[in-house]
Amino acid sequence: MSPIINSLVMHFGEMGSRWGLNRTLGQMYALIVLTEKPLNADEISAQLNISRSNVSMGLKELKSWNLIKLSHIPGDRKEYFSAPKDVWEIARNLMMERRKREVDPTLTALRDVLLEAPANEQEEYAQQRVKQMHDLIEMLTIWTDELQNMSNEKVAALLKLGSGLSKLLDMKERLLPGKTNKE
């Protein structure tokens, strides 16, 4: 492994825990992403100096996140793994998987609370706060759905706008005072 790839693999390992993955999984994914040809489990194990059983478990986890693709080489019985070549596809997969694992269950829990009749003022206040959280998360979910369906070029253009969007909204407010999004 070259020094640059090794450095990035180690960094991804450290960042893995901050991204909801363990260190080994972060290192494995970095190696797979940064390697042009598909790798088999033995190669991953040897390059990262980790046990074959850890690699197998890590590969199952990465497959469950839709972050790697399985392939076979004619005449070779081993399974080979690669990451999507398109980083936008990786980002979309991560967004969708995090949504399924974190956001959707939270929305369900919030909806369940909103269906309950409050028993007292304290629960009524809590439900108002839950409604605000639900509405915000729901709005973000709708927005991420829109991003998922946009072309890479449109998403990139949107991201490049950055603070320009805020300026555009400020200009709209100056041009159309008193108008809200609901009108």
TrEMBL record:
Keyword DNA-binding among record annotations: yes
A GO molecular-function descriptor: DNA-binding transcription factor activity
Pfam families documented for this protein: MarR_2 (PF12802)
Domain (HTH marR-type): residue spans on this chain: 19-78
Top-level taxon of the source organism: Bacteria
Family: Belongs to the GbsR family.
Protein name in UniProt: HTH-type transcriptional regulator
Organism: Thalassomonas actiniarum
Lineage, uppermost ranks: Bacteria, Pseudomonadati, Pseudomonadota, Gammaproteobacteria, Alteromonadales
